[in-house]
Design brief:
three-stranded antiparallel β-sheet, single chain, 1 helix, alpha+beta
């Protein structure tokens, strides 16, 4: 799975489809797993916080020979330091089983963030302050210059 250009302060979501091809019902649990550095794709850093990823539901029961969807949401906090980053994490899907062999599958999740959101720097306000200061300066200059001139009769 890949999420591109997710701006800090934004969220993205997608659905995972879980298929149970067995003859019995299985319960599946979803987790986030940080892969070892040597297994991450080149140029990808470790995902900063597993709490930014949520599953709905966190656990699901899938009857025999059927499928179910799980919604995965990724929400990046609104901070400049998270802009223009490339991360990787893995989503774990484990079947609760009474068998001796339990299988856990991983889905690679690549997340790239876009540019930081503006933090409210207002160019128009700055321009207004500059223009107002200049006008006050000229007004004060002409006022005092006129007052300093001797009157001619």
């Amino acid at each position: 799975m890949k999420i591109d250009d997710l701006s800090p302060g934004e969220a993205a979501g997608f659905e995972l489809t879980i298929r149970n091809k067995d003859e019995i019902t299985h319960n599946f649990t979803f987790t986030v797993f940080q892969p070892p550095e040597e297994q991450r794709w080149e140029g990808r850093a470790e995902f900063p916080d597993e709490n930014w990823i949520s599953f709905s539901p966190q656990e699901i029961e899938v009857p025999a020979h059927s499928e179910a969807n799980v919604t995965v949401a990724v929400a990046i906090p609104r901070e400049r330091k998270w802009a223009n980053q490339d991360w990787e994490t893995w989503l774990g899907v484990a079947s609760e089983s009474s068998d001796l062999l339990a299988v856990e599958l991983y889905v690679r999740l690549l997340v790239s963030t876009g540019a930081a959101m503006s933090e409210g720097f207002n160019v128009a306000l700055l321009a207004g302050i500059v223009v107002g200061t200049i006008l006050l300066g000229f007004g004060g200059y002409y006022y005092f210059r006129r007052k300093a001139k001797p009157r001619q009769a």
